[in-house]
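Justification of computing resources. Each target in the renewal requires a structure prediction run like the one illustrated here; the chain below, 149 residues long, is used simply to show the kind of job we budget for.
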Amino acid sequence: MTVKIAFASSDRRVVDQHFGAAEAFCIYELFGNDAAKADARLVEVAEFHDSDVVMNSFTNKHEGKLASKITLLEGCAAVYCNAVGASAIKQLLAAGIQPMKVEEGALVDELLCGLNQSLKNAPPAWLAKRMQSKDDDRFAAMEAEGWSE
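Resulting structure tokens:
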């Protein structure tokens, strides 16, 4: 069972950014296994720059900033960040991504280890739901392949 988890991090080691203002995300694939250390693999690092968003001259606000980040995180079960606004929370949850607020400087490796432990023991509701939907997808794919004897 694998699950993708994103972290708002400028250096890939610590969570140090607010979701909406994040300049970078690192996305890990976590393999739930019996190892004491998290079995995770960095699968993507994405960086955002001010030129990546469209400025709305009427409201003087950036449009598309959240949408582009949420699109990038599609397929992730959760995103860890230092803070996240109400609008972003609503959009993340609608996309099936659980926002997770942690203290600035939380170590990515420690968070991955904690998730690995919860995968083995008693995953939180958001993670259990995500794991169940992945199992449902697996069975649908098997059915689509057909059966031959």
